[in-house]
Design brief:
With 65 residues, the protein is mainly beta. It contains no helices and five strands.
């Protein structure tokens, strides 16, 4: 498992769930389809979008929650 190709949700009690990504790559799409390469940092806006710094692909990615 490569943690840099996935986005996780971690609850206050430590339950870790993959919410986006799978294997390394570059693919825009739904949260289930999106692929990342070295995701580094993220932000969430008020319109249910996640912005991901995808350093392996040299870009900022926008994913709908």
């Amino acid at each position: 498992m490569d943690d840099y190709a996935r986005l996780y949700k971690i609850t206050p009690v430590g339950v870790k769930t993959t919410i986006a990504g799978s294997t390394h790559g570059y693919l825009d799409g739904t949260i289930a389809e999106a692929k990342f390469n070295q995701s580094f940092s993220l932000a969430v806006d008020g319109n249910e979008y996640i912005y991901v710094a995808d350093s392996g692909n040299n870009c900022i990615r926008k994913v709908k929650l």
